[in-house]
Amino acid sequence: MLPSLTTRPGEPGDWPDLRTLYAETFTEEELLPVVEALLADDGFGVCSLVALSDGKVVGHIAMTPCGVGKTADAAALLGPLGVRPDAQGQGAGSALVRAGCEAMVDRGFSQVLVLGDPAYYGRFGFRPERDVTPPCPIPDAWKDAWQSMATGAGCTQVKGTLQVPPPWRDPTLWGT
Ligand SMILES: CC(C)(COP(=O)(O)OP(=O)(O)OC[C@H]1O[C@@H](n2cnc3c(N)ncnc32)[C@H](O)[C@@H]1OP(=O)(O)O)[C@@H](O)C(=O)NCCC(=O)NCCS
Fold first, then answer.
1. CA of 88 to the centre of ligand 1 (A)
2. Nearest-atom index, ligand 1, CA of 116
3. N or C: which end of the chain has fewer CB within 10 A?
């Protein structure tokens, strides 16, 4: 476990650290532009959290409010999630997933969706999702990577296509 591991909402002063974090963590994908676009518009209502160890930024997560079919604010989309390579495997990612889900529960969201490795997200209770369709086609081989977790009591299962804000409508973010 990293020393003095905490999470807090992202702040404008975090941008230099986030730029370094995204460059070092995602060497094969360009995910900083989607984070910048999501956080540039307060209307998207995106929840951005950083993980700190000894006061330094070591990880970041974004949670985006989304509709499902015609139901507004029906689910939260988790991602991106990244932890600096030198801080990985020491609990920061788990702390961010838990804090991100709790933040969205507090805002009344009862379902969180993610496109990610089932071996990782399964640890938190995410399971393959079939009723909510991703906003863009995903490769067949990634079918089980599209997952969801119910986070609130008494949630009603919604069905339909996930309605994402424009920064998430780039098909390359969905593997196609
Ligand atoms: C994936 C990532 C966010 C996990 O964060 P982390 O701080 O390293 O993870 P944690 O320390 O909380 O990991 C908890 C456990 O998950 C395991 N784990 C980490 N990444 C995993 C993966 N891709 N698949 C399966 N298990 C994984 C760890 O080994 C650890 O296991 P343990 O508790 O049995 O020792 C981080 O490794 C990362 O940023 N990777 C590169 C970017 C990436 O792939 N992001 C995910 C986008 S969907």
1. 7
2. 48
3. N
- Cα–Cα distance for residue pair 103/77, rounded to 1 Å: 12
The domain spanning residue 120 has which CATH number? 3.40.630.30
Asked if residue 137 belongs to a domain, the reply is: yes
Residue 43 burial by Cβ neighbours in a 10 Å radius (0-12, 13-18, 19+)? exposed
SS3 108: coil
Distance CA 117, CA 121 (A): 6
Provide the domain limits for residue 128. 5-169
* pLDDT tens track, the chain, 176 positions: 899 999 999 999 999 999 999 999 999 999 999 999 999 999 999 999 999 999 999 999 999 999 999 999 999 999 999 999 999 999 999 999 999 999 999 999 989 999 999 999 999 999 999 999 999 999 999 999 999 999 876 566 789 999 999 999 999 999 98
How far, in Å, is the centroid of ligand 1 from the Cα of 123?
10
Q: Is residue 176 part of a domain?
A: no
Q: How many domains does the chain have?
A: 1
24 lines ligand 1 (CB under 6 A): no
